[in-house]
Structures are given as C-alpha cells and as structure tokens.
C-alpha cells in the first residue's frame, strides 16, 4: 500500500543539544561500500550524572531522510524527565554521519543496531523507532532468537507510527530523491543558500515543511572559501547517498518477516512489552496491518495521538508522556 509522507515544519534541523551531564559525537567514514557485516553507527549519548551508561538505556532510531539531530529536542526532554536512564540517539546507515553502505535493508539495519548494543554492552534496552527506524527496531526484536541474544538484552519496544507490513513506498519518496539529485547536478554557484535549494524543490513539493525537512540533509558550499581557493567550484551536496537510497526503495517498503493473513500466523514473535503510537491522521498503522502488529508482538499496547505520521514532532508533550509512562511501568 502506498502512503503519503506528512512532515511538520517544526521538524527542521535541530541544533545538537548539549546536556549538562554528558554529550558525545562519533563521526564515521563516509566512504561508499558494500558490506554484509554490521557497520559502526554514529550516535549522541545522554549519560546520567552517576555515570550509568549501560543499564536500562533508551535507544532511538530515526526515519527515512532523518538523523539523530532531528531527535535532539525530544532527547533533551526525555533526559530531563528520566535523568537516571541513559539515552542514545543513533544515525542509521546511509543517514547522518554513519557510513554509506549497501545493502540498505531492514536485516542490515537491525544488524547494525545489534552491533551497537553489543559493543556498548547495553542491557535491559528500551528501543524506540519511528517509521523506517520503527521497522528496523521491530526487525531487531524479531531477530533476537535467531541471534541467540540474552533474553534480558531488550526489555521494551516502542514503535512510532509504522507497522510490520510489506508494500510499496509512496511515490513521493522517488520524486524527492529525483529532485535532490537534480540539485546536486546543478553547476557550481547555482545553489549558495538553503533558499536557493528550496526554490528548486518547489516544483516537486508544495509543502514547505516537507522541503525544509529534506533540506536538513543539504551541505552548502563553504562561504569562507575564496574563488582562487576553489570556492567557485564547490557544489551543494546532500549528506545522504541518493544513489543508494534510490535503489533501495523496494527494500525499504518490505519487511524481513512475513505475516500470513489467512490464519494470522507468523514465523517468530517478540513477547516483551511493546508500545505502538499511531497518528490518527496517518495511514501507516491501519485496520489492515494491525493484525500483523499484534501477531508479531502479542503484548503490544496501541495508543493514538491526534497527529499525522510525525507523531513525536506534532505532539511532542503527549508523545513524551506516553514514552515516559511506558518506561516507568515496571
């Protein structure tokens, strides 16, 4: 099923928050590669004053075209309400400052998350994912038995407005990637500001909030470089690898585990506490795929917010309360 993407204007590129207790950046190689091994992901961490970095962390996974930076304000608010819980916001592969690599599949993304959790020696993890990140989080949870992971590793799962369904992504995604590729192909000097790029996107997307969100991935030519230093030859470029993403649309609409609608059966389940937060104006969780959600995650609790797909940005206070209350319930 094709679905549309609705992105609120307030989900603009948020400046990295600097919590008093702890803040960390991790920048990785941006080289394109083909690897069937998990990659090391960039992240921002919020560590309690007591130094606990491993027990009961909240790990957050963003959606397509997003990054850890988009969750900056929410992370700061969650950290304020849960000061004793470590929080990690990750850049998934091909996003933010994490490596550019193929394949771009949910199996691969789940493997990256598994590596991160293992490398950091995290335990009793609460995993939160929105949209693409939600599918990656579900794929991780459903793969734990296959990987023979300790039962205590994942304690809770939070899915923001996405279901474990298989279908086609909305045509808008293809249109966005094509528009972004055209911007990259423009001669040096044509795109000097975000306003320049926004004008080029307007024929492809009328909603300014969507354009602003896409442009959070734009790297502009350096204004400090003089022409004789090569400044005139610099071109605007997107930090996401558009060629990889354009070839991965089918995989991003898919899901590694199948649901048999005839008898509501699945090949594996994750039986831990699960919270699914649906936007009532969003089609991503609907009556057709809720049976799959309940089959894969028998202990799922479904909540709703009066919002579109970006539930955490449109209703941040209500979303935060759902998360904090869910994690506080032992």
Describe it for me?
The strands form four sheets. A seven-stranded mixed beta sheet has the order 2-4-3-6-7-12-13, with helices on both faces. A two-stranded parallel ribbon has the order 1-5. Helix 1 crosses helix 11 (about 315-330). By secondary structure, it is an alpha/beta fold. Strand 3 (about 60), helix 1 and strand 4 form a beta-alpha-beta unit. The chain folds into two domains: about 45-165 and about 255-330, Rossmann fold (3-Layer(aba) Sandwich); about 170-225 and about 230-250, no CATH class. The radius of gyration is 20 Å and the shape is globular. The protein is built from eleven helices and 13 strands.
Query: What is the radius of gyration computed over CA atoms, rounded to a whole number of angstroms?
Result: 20 Å
Using the coordinates shown, work out and report the CATH topology of the largest domain. Answer: Rossmann fold
| Low-pLDDT segments | 1-30, 224-228
Along the chain, the helix and strand elements come as: EEEHEEHEHEHHHEEHHEEEHEHH
Structural class: alpha/beta
Q: Give the CA-based shape.
A: globular
Number of helices, counting only DSSP H or I runs of 4 residues or more: 11
Top CATH class of the largest domain:
Alpha Beta
The portion of residues forming beta strands comes to 15-25%
């Amino acid at each position: 099923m094709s679905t549309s993407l609705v992105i609120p204007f307030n989900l603009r590129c948020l400046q990295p928050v600097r919590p008093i207790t702890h803040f960390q950046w991790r920048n990785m190689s941006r080289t394109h590669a083909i690897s069937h091994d998990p990659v090391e992901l960039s992240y921002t961490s919020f560590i309690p004053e007591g130094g606990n970095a491993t027990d009961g962390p909240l790990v957050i996974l963003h959606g397509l075209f997003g990054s850890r930076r988009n969750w900056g304000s929410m992370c700061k608010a969650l950290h304020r309400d849960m000061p004793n819980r470590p929080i990690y916001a990750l850049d998934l592969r091909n996003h933010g400052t994490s490596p550019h690599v193929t394949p771009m599949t949910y199996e691969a993304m789940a493997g990256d998350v598994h590596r991160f959790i293992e490398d950091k020696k995290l335990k009793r993890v609460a995993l939160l994912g929105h949209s693409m990140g939600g599918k990656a989080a579900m794929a991780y949870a459903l793969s734990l038995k296959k990987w023979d992971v300790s039962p205590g590793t994942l304690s809770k799962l939070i899915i923001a407005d996405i279901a474990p369904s298989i279908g086609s992504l909305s045509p808008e995604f293809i249109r966005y990637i094509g528009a972004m590729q055209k911007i990259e192909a423009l001669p040096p000097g044509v795109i000097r500001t975000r306003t320049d790029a926004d004008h080029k996107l307007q024929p492809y997307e009328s909603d300014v909030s969507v354009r602003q969100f896409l442009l959070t991935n734009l790297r502009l030519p350096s204004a400090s470089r003089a022409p004789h230093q090569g400044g005139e030859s610099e071109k605007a470029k997107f930090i996401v690898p558009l060629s990889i993403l354009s070839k991965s649309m089918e995989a991003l609409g898919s899901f590694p585990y199948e649901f048999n609608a005839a008898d509501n059966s699945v090949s594996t389940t994750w039986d831990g506490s699960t919270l699914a937060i649906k936007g009532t104006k969003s089609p991503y969780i609907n009556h057709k795929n809720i049976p799959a959600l309940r089959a894969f995650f028998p202990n799922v609790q479904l909540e709703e917010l009066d919002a579109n797909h970006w539930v955490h940005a449109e209703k941040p206070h209500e979303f935060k309360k759902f998360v904090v209350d869910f994690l506080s319930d032992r």
